Amino acid sequence: MSKEYNLKDSTSQIPSSEGFTTSKRLEGIGEYYFSQKLREIDELNKQGKNIINLGIGSPDLPPHPDVVKVLQEEAAKPNTHAYQSYKGSPILRNAIKDWYDTWYGVTVNADTEVLPLIGSKEGIMHICMTYLNEGDIALVPNPGYPTYRSAVKLAGGVCVDYDLTEANHWQPDFAQLESQDLRKVKLLFVNYPHMPTGQLPNVAVLNKLIAFAKQHHILIIHDNPYSFILNESPMSLLSLDGAKDVVIELNSLSKSQNMAGWRVGMLVAAKDRIDEVLRFKSNMDSGMFLPVQLAAAKALSLGKDWYDGVNAIYQARRIKVFELLDLLGCFYSKNQVGMFVWAKIPANYKDGYALSDEILYKSNVFITPGGIFGSAGNGYIRVSLCGSVERFDEAIKRIKN
Ligand SMILES: Cc1ncc(COP(=O)(O)O)c(C=O)c1O
């Protein structure tokens, strides 16, 4: 297990002092990088360092006030506190249907093709638990969101990387994909706009991917939480011909509606896929608090003004991030979208970890090393746009000093 995915190796076979051992499935699963790093930053803050954290993509802006109002009003009612349907409230499912129609031009059936989730992260685990048997292979992007990898392993599957490179515009290399033994491959994770590189979706490549999945009987999991951030043309993979036959799409209100802490996501797919995942998920949780679902429905009904307002703020911040990266001598594309800026580090640093540590310990600014997203990210760093312009100015000042 490499450093980038696993800072604290599992000690499952070594009993604790009380004699307890953790399960075998936790072997090789480390504590999530950010959970460990945030503790270190906490420690540094206790020493008075006042670290500027430009690492995590957790929106610092609030949701629309009307969304908060719905939550408050609904939570104040006496009859909104019971367990909820496993399939989610029909009001939220219909709001998801309308959202897909309005923004992605995708028609879905609100009763059968939509499943609200308690954040899209849990959906990744549910999908792995639903489809993977011991030893089944899931293809995961390198670099990519680390949760794909851990969820596959926790479910007993095996991760095989497919490399995304700058030279190939961070798109899958079909020659590499086809050259492998694909017989045990059951799932393929894909994510455009891509995190961490900010690469936009490319329709021709995605059409090829659908054909590839059909040919080899592979289920594509498209993770789509960033489609509205700094992107004028939000796209769903389900808008492509024949996609519903082989695609499950995950989506989220965390980033586009500034609701990361509310934990609202969704899974959109053919009826059979929804039923299959629900067989697992309905054994895991008992639905989502109704006022949260109703407020989420409100959030999904917001118009273009909402997205434009959020994006104007990210735009101004991104200019500051470019300035900060110039100061560090990094190289980056100005065509990236999403909530981060991905940048290649200067040649005098061994890797992104070295640059990240230097800035953390010398300037009290934390920037994510690209290696946590996989070995192909080693020569990069990722800066989050979730901080005010003033914080970026302060970070620039500290680094200059
Ligand atoms: C690529 C990607 N997918 C999924 C998620 C999880 O989002 P959610 O808050 O909906 O669980 C994140 C969160 O950072 C992400 O970056």
TrEMBL record:
User: What Gene3D superfamilies does the entry give?
Assistant: Aspartate Aminotransferase, domain 1, Type I PLP-dependent aspartate aminotransferase-like (Major domain)
Query: In the Enzyme Commission scheme, what number(s) does this protein have?
Result: 2.6.1.-
Instruction: Write down the InterPro entries for this protein, in alphabetical order.
Output: Aminotransferase_I/II_large, LL-DAP_aminotransferase, NHTrfase_class1_PyrdxlP-BS, PyrdxlP-dep_Trfase, PyrdxlP-dep_Trfase_major, PyrdxlP-dep_Trfase_small
Q: Which residues form the Aminotransferase class I/classII large domain?
A: 50-399
- Name the needed cofactors: pyridoxal 5'-phosphate
Q: Does the keyword Transferase apply?
A: yes
Residues of the region (Disordered) are 1-20
GO molecular function terms noted in the UniProt entry? transaminase activity
- Xref: PROSITE patterns: AA_TRANSFER_CLASS_1
Tagged with keyword Transferase: yes
Compositionally biased, Polar residues: which spans? 8-20
One Pfam family this sequence matches: Aminotran_1_2
Q: Which UniProt keywords apply?
A: Aminotransferase, Transferase
Instruction: Give the similarity note.
Output: Belongs to the class-I pyridoxal-phosphate-dependent aminotransferase family.
Task: Name it.
Answer: Aminotransferase
Organism of this sequence: Parasediminibacterium paludis
